[in-house]
Amino acid sequence: MEHDDSITELLLTLKSVMQAAERLGPASGPGLADALSTHLGCDVESLSVLSEEVVPHRFADWDVALEHLASQDPNASVLGVGGGQERLHQSLGDLISTRYTRFGVGQVDYCKVPTGPTGHRQTIGFGIRLMTFAGHPVAVMQRKPDPMYGSANARFEVVCQDAEVAADLLVEASRLGTKMSLLRGQVITFAGNGFDPGSDGFTFLPRPDVPTGDVVLPEGVLERITNHVLGVDEHTEALRRFGQHLKRGILLYGPPGTGKTHTVRHLVGRAHSHTVVLLRGMTLAYITQAAVIARNLQPAIVVLEDCDLVAADRDFTPSGAPLLFEVLDALDGLDADADVTFLLTTNRVDILEEALVQRPGRVDLAMEIPLPDLEERTRLLRVYRRDVPFSDAGLSSAAEQTDGMTAAFAKELVRRAVLEAALQEQTPADSHLAKALGDLLSERETLTRRLLGMDDVVDAVVTDETWAGAAD
Q1: pLDDT digits (tens, 9 = 90+) for 275-317
Q2: With contact defined as beta carbons under 8 Å apart, do 142 and 127 qualify?
Q3: What pLDDT does residue 12 have?
């Protein structure tokens, strides 16, 4: 028993020695406070620390800005902070204080952050830049967001003999970060899935490429929408010269599956110079942040998909107001000369119409995307046919028998026909198209048709036996 007690006492003593060594910092080399005092030319503990919290999607922008400022000082350098995990819980003021724990100079922590759908940038995840700004030596500590350690936002802290210089540096970093933003001209959405490294609550999306010929709408509809979105941007000087507003709101409405999202993808693909923020579902709650991004990185498009699904929901907004009110407030909050388009889509315009009418001017163009007529159904099938060897006569026949067909239905029909041929190890032909259409129009596929947005027309529903004969 005494032997066990002696071992326990020894272990406790060793633990105390290790803790004391950690508090004292490295045996050789300067402590962090010493290094900063040398750079600043005074006792760093006597100075105030100014700090700024930055939302995750702006962290890389600030890193770019500070790197640019540091590049103007040939003697600029970067310090890391020693001290193990404990340093991650401390502010810069705590790290430079020698009252309790003496932190030493250590290795700089670097991290990769996304700069586009495929690109990344190496940034300082946790470190201190030593440089001069406005003729004064300054130290800037930057720390990436890390929810594990209670920091949902990035944090930048500045110490300088002149507190006004420190404040000016934070203002300049913010200005440069906006001017040089890595988000400019990108397509992003909020709320990363939490599994992608560096997602930090937002995700870059590839800019879609949907040719004009692939957008099948009634004559003149796409042209009007395009002119309202891109035409304004092309003629901003003329509109401003005559005192006309640039901010605009567009509502695309119509039954599910008719091509509203497809039209949006076409517009986003053509708007190469625009910053695009895509919000759908629960991410619609980020409308305020999206509007701020759009205002600062204009020309911009804010896409609000399927607004009707959460328009009346109060659970997604900090204020507890219905989400649609937040959207309208965001529209109100932008200056009239902001080159920003709010592009809304909905399957249930009746849910949105009353609120929009009560606050006129927020949406200045409402365009219906209706179910395609016979000519448009034929064009849709030709679009999705691609290189599949279906005849024009076969496509026309299918179009004639699918009144109420949506773009989603047409796409699925062609896919099923190709699959039918593959299962039979044959080249796709009109007979496979007829068989696939028969399956989709059969009674057992009633729910499938509804999920594809197709109105159930009784006359269009046939028995499997009828279509078995048609496929032969």
Answers
A1: 999 998 878 888 888 988 999 998 999 999 988 776 555 455 5
A2: yes
A3: 61
Q: How far is 327 from 352, CA to CA, in rounded Å? A: 11
In this structure, what DSSP letter does residue 100 have?
S
* Beta bridge pairs of residue 137: 132
Q: Could you tell me which of 213, 262, 51, 243 has the C-alpha nearest to residue 139? A: 51
CB of 397 closer than 8 Å to CB of 421: no
The structure's pTM equals 0.80
Q: φ and ψ at 91, to 5 degrees?
A: -80, 170
Q: What is the DSSP letter of 229?
A: I
Side-chain-side CA neighbours of residue 28 (13 Å): 0
Cβ partners under 8 Å of residue 251, min gap 6: 344, 345, 346, 349, 352, 356, 363, 365, 366, 367
DSSP 182: T
The angle at the Cα of 137, spanning 135 to 138, to the nearest 5 degrees, equals 120
pLDDT for residue 360: 64
How many angstroms separate the first and last alpha carbons of the chain? Answer: 92
Q: Is 80 helix (H, G, I), strand (E, B) or coil?
A: strand
Contact 199, 192 (CB under 8 A): yes
Do 315 and 345 form a contact (C-beta atoms < 8 A)? no
Characterise 204 by phi-psi region: left (phi > 0), alpha (psi -120 to 50), beta (else).
beta
41: left (phi over 0), alpha (psi -120 to 50) or beta: left
Mind listing the pLDDT tens digit for each residue in 1-40? 555 666 666 656 655 544 454 444 443 456 889 999 999 9
CA nearest to 351, candidates 315, 310, 302, 316: 310
DSSP-H helix ranges across 41-162: 59-70, 92-96
Considering only the C-alpha atoms of the chain, give the largest distance between any 2 of them, rounded to a whole number of Å.
98
Asked if 193 and 292 count as a contact pair (C-beta separation under 8 A), the reply is no
What angle is formed at CA 271 by the lines to CA 268 and CA 274, rounded to 5 degrees? 100
pLDDT score, position 194: 46
Q: Where are the beta strands (DSSP E) in 161-247?
A: 187-190, 202-205
Cβ neighbours of residue 47 closer than 8 Å, sequence gap 6 or more: 40, 159, 160, 161, 163
In this predicted structure, what is the pLDDT of residue 470?
Answer: 34
* H runs (alpha helix) in 284-364: 287-296, 323-333, 349-358
Q: Which two tokens stand for residue 341?
A: 């388009």
CA-CA distance, 68 to 51, in Å (whole number)? 19
Regions of the chain short of the pLDDT cut 50: 17-19, 21-28, 193-198, 314, 320, 457-472
Tokens of 186: 């990108």
d(Cα 42, Cα 138) in Å, to the nearest integer? 11
Report CA-CA distances (Å) from 198 to 119, 141, 184, 404. 12, 20, 18, 45
Predicted pLDDT of residue 352 = 73
